[in-house]
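pinning this so it doesn't scroll away 📌
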Amino acid sequence: MMKGIYLLLGSNLGDRKEILKIARSHIGLSIGDIIHCSSIYATKAWGVEDQPDFLNQVVEVESEHTPEEILLQVNSIEEKLGRVRKIKWQSRIIDIDILYYGSLILNTQDLVIPHAENQNRNFVLAPMVEIAPDFVHPVFLRTQQQLLNTCTDGLEVKKLHIE
């Protein structure tokens, strides 16, 4: 079983809390056991800012699946929950990104691990720091806390106190 697989969940349409809950359930059934789950964070949209705020959460999964198999499962979960891909960074009912797969570095046409923008996004780093502050980025060789401390992303990330 591989640990240190971190996924970012995000939603800015519909009942966002419920959608994250349903996505976690699907992850547990089709990808692997969720062993850590961050709080939920509210953030302004990144990229295209004229859209509803996102709720984001990071989960750590323990899985026997390869990164490519996890990507297929992630895409299937997004499709089941109603995600439609038309425009980059558009509003979406669910978005699930593979942030890390342990210390693996992978760069293919379909999949880049670690996610290329992790170090540039507070909405990734804040929940990562909550559950894995000392996890080292395999490319930059810096912990999540160190990356957050130097991140230049100006978008506010607010931890919500909800279940």
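📌 and the second one:
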Amino acid sequence: MDTHALIWWLLGSEGLSERATRAIETSEAPVWVSAASAWEIATKYRIGKLPAAGEIATGLVDHINTAGFEMMDITFEDANDAGGLPGPHRDPFDRLLIAQAGRRGLPVITTDGVFQTYGVPVIW
């Protein structure tokens, strides 16, 4: 799950598409949340880009556990793959999510079409 989709889910926002909401609610497979999203939320909250995400930033592990999601650590291989991805995409958080999804053969719930350019299936 991309970070914006995670935030929208946790805040109960209407920003998620019907397809994304169904995928989260009805998935028999685990819904994975990357440590990259924890890093992104904490960073953007700290610098003022996510002022509404204070409770999420300070209690993210509890929120993920309550939602029944699985936490995905960042491995050395994930970081290496993310750094080596071709193309101009510069967002380090997205690059990590792309690398992790690609390495594990997972789709990503996201509105960001750049994931598909890297061969990662997108649910939206």
